[in-house]
Amino acid sequence: MFDVIIAGCGPTGAILAAELRLHDVRVLVVEKETEPASFVRIVGLHIRSLELMAMRGLLDRLREHGRQRPAGGFFAAIDKPAPGGLDSAHAYLLGIQQPVIVRLLEEHAGELGAEIRRGRAVAGFGQDDDGVTVELSDGERLRTRYLVGCDGARSTVRKLLGVGFPGEPARNDALMGEMKVGVSPEEITATMAGLPEPPRRFWLRHFGEGVYSVLVPAAGVSDRSEPPTLEDFKQQLRAVVGTDFGVHSPRWLSRFGDATRQAERYRVGRVLLAGDSAHIHPPIGGQGLNLGIQDAINLGWKLAAQIRGWAPETLLDTYQAERHPVAADVLDNTRAQVELQSPEPGPRAVRRLLTELMDFDEVNRHLIEKITAIGLRYDFGAGPDLLGRRLRDLDLKPGPLYDQLHQGRGLVLDRTERLTVDGWSDQVDLIADPTAAVDAPALLLRPDGHVGWIGEEQQDLNEHLTRWFGTPTS
Description:
The chain is an alpha+beta fold. Helices cover 31% and strands 24% of the residues. The chain has helices at residues 11-21, 47-55, 59-63, 98-111, 156-161, 185-193, 230-241, 288-308, 318-339, 345-357, 361-372, 458-469, and strands at 2-7, 27-31, 42-45, 66-70, 92-97, 115-118, 122-127, 132-136, 141-149, 167-168, 173-180, 203-208, 211-217, 248-257, 260-262, 267-268, 271-273, 279-280, 395-396, 399-400, 410-414, 428-432, 442-445, 451-455. A hairpin with a 5-residue loop joins strand 23 (442-445) and strand 24. Helix 1 (11-21) packs parallel to helix 4 and helix 8 runs antiparallel to helix 9. The radius of gyration is 23 Å and the shape is globular.
């Protein structure tokens, strides 16, 4: 008997398993692949995901294997630097090889006690009032209290659950890969500068050591049933920019469409969805991996609270209430970005106008905060602007704020030095620090780093501790 079975051991599934283990939940992760993907694809962690990794003590481990580059140029690949003074200690992009981040997150979950079985997948399940009976692809039947589908865009769990996945099918395909080039960076810069207008649905981005990420339109590469070849990339590069830059030694090559879909529901009874199982969109803006990680951090403590028996009645339902609108917004902004890469005259004119508007700091800041999720605010009701937002890292008496969140517990930061968390100390820590650089007398931070209460009265705090962490235990 497990508390939770997770289908899929990608970044979303691995992080969710780790979050559950922080609360001593019995977790099994099943992954259909016997080994992690061997192709070396670079993925990017945006600012909010970097903050979450710092909150769990993982960021230094990831940075050892990644490469930092300045934030900016994310929205529709419009080349604008990030505005100054972004409200984060981690205002950069961390590029890291996908097999490496999967390995590191899987190791983290295993170190915390999650059981991981590769070469197995969920083949069927049935749920009742007490739990879920899960049948694996090898015929084994297991019993669990909850099942979470983190098994990707073609999620078996979602299909068996019968949850609709409405949206738009792919209209335009693109080729994407990572490879080396045979010319100097100066020649690439000169070639791009000599183009009359920047190509659409195209990029050539340097990832270091002579390796570039290449995106080109797939129009003209007609056979969708066959994987693309290096010659396909050369052909498309010559068609788009007039030269193939001598590309060679590909690490991986792929073809993808701009399908955009979102699950109608993230929870049906004891079965939930997260990551690509719940939403898919084009990779423009690099939000997909980050969206899944943030789903997992939001869900983990709530599902653990349900299992451990201290969750308020509606806590688990807030997972869908909070994360479904976030994904819907991401789908909308990727739709907009795709349109801005159209070669048609209208979208080109809009792109030129937006490029001008992004010279205004407010516009540029709004777009980068949207892409990196640091502008996100959950609706927790009326209150100061900080309510419902994430809190940046702060220097506190015991040390950095994020270092105090490694165990996935709630935290009351009290500048008044008058408050207590008596009755909730099993789930919530208290730091009394009148010097904390935050514009609030006191605040309650949820385990996912979002501010769940601001005030200074003990009775008011107690009401909100009950809202997020249930009735007091003493």
